[in-house]
Amino acid sequence: MKTHAKQSIELDHLNLAPVVKTEVSNLIQALQNELKLLEAKNQALMLELAHLRRIRYGVKNEALSSGQLSLFEEDRQTDIAAIEAEIEQLPSISPQKKPKRERAGRQPLPDHLPRDRASP
Question: Is residue 43 part of a domain?
């Protein structure tokens, strides 16, 4: 393993006792094994999450296939023909113009009020 050889080279620079070097090397190896295990678990969880997202938000199979759509084509054509026949039977209604509203604005003064005309 390349990392193990690299570790022993790095441990040689630390000037440790042989027993301590062995313990540190074993500890590093245990931590690397745990890291690999956690990375594998993380990868599995990421794949599971991606799968669940595809299930939840992915393409649904609720769309009708072309074979299923053809089953309803005859009913659709019948319904369209029936609606067109109903429309033809309705009396033709010409659009009526709305009566013109009186313009909103100032109301005339009551008759009992005196009036003064200003001269121009």
Answer: yes
115 or 84, higher pLDDT? 84
Please choose, from the candidates 38, 14, 41, 37, the residue with its C-alpha nearest in 3D space to the C-alpha of residue 25: 14
Residue 10 lies inside a defined structural domain of this protein: yes
Residue 35 structural domain: 2-61
Judged by DSSP in three states, 15 sits in coil
Number of domains observed in the structure of the chain: 1
Query: For the chain, where are the E strands, in sequence order?
Result: none
Residue 100 lies in a domain: no
Q: Residues 3, 32: contact at Cβ < 8 Å?
A: yes
What token pair was written down for 54? Answer: 């595809």
Express each pLDDT in 88-99 by its tens digit.
888 776 667 777
Q: For the packed helices 2-12 and 18-57, what is the interaxial angle rounded to 10 degrees?
A: 140
Confirm whether pTM is higher than 0.70: no
